[in-house]
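#lab-general

N.A. 3:47 PM
ok so I finally got the sequence cleaned up, no stray characters, all 824 residues accounted for. can someone with queue access submit it? mine expired

B.Y. 3:52 PM
send it over

N.A. 3:53 PM
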Amino acid sequence: MPTIDKEELRAKFQEFFGVNPHDFQLEVAQNLLEGKSVVLQAPTGAGKTFTALFPFLYAWKYLEPQDFPRKSIYSVERKILVNNFHADVEERLTKLDLNLKPGILTGDRAEDRSLEKNLIFTTIDQTLSSFLFTPYSLSSRQANLNAGAISSSYLVFDEAHLFDSKTALPTLMWILQALKGITPSLLMTATFSKPVLEKLAEITGGKIVTVSAKELESIPAQATKKRYFQTVATPLTGEAVWEKHNQRSIVVCNTVDRAQQLYDELETLAKGTDTKLILLHARFWQTDRKQKEADLLKLFGKNNKLEVGSAILIATQVIEVGVDITCKNLHTELAPANTILQRAGRCARYENEVGTVFVYQVESKLPYAKNDDVEAIDLFQPTFDNLNELGQGGTLPVTFELEQELINRVHTVEDTKTLAAIEANRDIHGREIEITINQQEKGYLSNLIRDADSRTILVHDEPDLIESPYAYEGFSIFDGSFRGKLKGLRQEADQQSTWAVKYPKEIVEDAEKKEQIERRKVRYEWPILNPDDKNIWQPVVVVNPALVSYDKERGFRFIPNQGEPFRSKPLDKARPEREKYGYKLETYAEHIRNVNWAYGHFKFADEIAFACSRLQERLGSGVPTDTIDRAVRLSFVFHDAGKLTEGWQKSVHDWQSAIGNAQSANFMIAHTNYDPILPQHRELNKSGKYRRPPHAVEGAAIVVPYLYKELGKELYRPVVSAIASHHAPGATMLGDYKLHSSAAQALNEAMTHIARGQPWNMEAKILTPARPPNMNELDSRLMVKAKVQPDNQLDLLLYMLIIRVLRLADQKSFEFGKVHSEGN
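B.Y. 4:20 PM
back already:
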């Protein structure tokens, strides 16, 4: 890895961001750019976002793909934080002119579902589910597409203390340990306890970087501000906020319902005054939320200019991290210490500011204590008592050092228990991860990512018109809140003689038919969701718009709609369709040429270059340095080898004859002509006479002997697995087949497009001529799904990379003709 001078980094940081970096930011950058992982603990407002972005931007501009990952995935716990980061960074990157446009992926903004952008902001749920081959953003047939993006990217996890300690955190730890030495990661927070810091550093093989007391004195925003804490033994009310209001106040509630209630109380109190009220939570349409966020920066930002007499923001957890605002008085409902400190970061945030955080007792512990979670409840009172003690009843400013003392007092015992529980359950948790990856089994996701505590609500009166539920805008809701509302929705629906809630159910085709529609869109049906239904947990549901309401001030509410009808709308940047699934006639060799072209043209090779260089080191000195690249390109040549059978070729030649474009018998077809606009093509397709036999697993079986000879035992299995599963990760059925007499010739011609001057000739005698008689033996050799075992984790990581670039290059290969017809 390159060694980069600290002073060079200092100059480039200033060039990128217009500010001089702190020493801890340069230390983080040096470690990451040398390929090491980092666990960073720094106070709110210290510039953690710049710290995370800088190494990637520097590498993007000045380093080669094999020296640092060309993709970064920035994961946070909450959707609204993703929106904030994305908007801010997109504007900054435009000014930097780096030819780098960020992407975004959340449940309600699935704009980069295949993780194809180079800088992606997403949630921890999306990241973990992608690695586990159960991506929330993709259909089951594309479940193996995104794992390779995770395993080859620079991974940033912001405010990682928010990750669920029983589900997401153990899974993240398992993944980071699997990726140790393969790709660098950065975990950041202001509120990790010491045991967690040390454990994460051990797992990642990384370095702990903290901001020293001396350095804090050099950060004006830390050295000159004063923040006091006052505990209040009664619940938070609008009257309490109004009584203490001074120019700018922020109110943070634990639930949306409480925030809406406080907004109504304050609206009454502020009536007739010049105080502006803003309510912000996760249940606003994107356009309204963006406007509110813009207003926040004007009213509560560092350089605010109040055009009104005063302003009060009422919000939920959505402002805890990633929102650069400040106030004089912040009122918050009691929560665990780490959460309180995150909220406090919105008070007296900048240099020379003075502010007070009022912490109020609560009657309900939701959403922090789910199902009477005693451990979570036990964090509330210690937080309350220690805040009062450390802040001396609101008379002593609470510094970063005192904040760390609070964290260690309140969370160390619980965090130590959590780490012990993670270690005790490591084998069980790991086994559930293995099953999930091997079988795309979603049943364990509540144990591995999130215990079903949030879902996305769509609003639509005709859900059958929704082609993809992941391509529509919705609202996020805590699952406990949703279940509490479901009974009322059902009762109101009964009164209106209509339905209340439905959910999308993927229509699963039988194996044979599935192969025929492998490139078509996933289809859904929409059954009604009942409170006692065993399918009560669904990540996306649709609610009848007659039963709910929406307005720009309060957002989405569970009260019958008395105003204008409204619907969820398709996302502006939803994935475009590929010209109605039309195809042009291609020979086998032409298709392989186009796939190999897409691999280079769309820079998929650059995307995996860094991870491949690390994996090449793991393979050892006895394996040639170009072996992984060779494996990738051979996967291109052979991925459709199953089409070179007599049965498949007969079907496509019959089709070409039927549409009046017959070809000679030795013309090996990869794709036929098909234009969905032509009635003749549509009718012939519907007739079922030209159904093509499956080819993916067959292709893998055909080339096993050749791949074993060319790649050896270290690499042939990931390639065979990728070929078998390049249309569906669960493909296992192997049908009867017989190779066409022109198969070897077609493969040799295809080889010329990847050979790069090397002798990669296909010997016909080592092709499997027909379905092998011993299927059990073949199945074990194919490793149709990447098996996760302690001794083949290398196989898994190689498979992730190969299957990703194979599928992406295959999909993008159809753009070859378009690009070249335009003279590009």
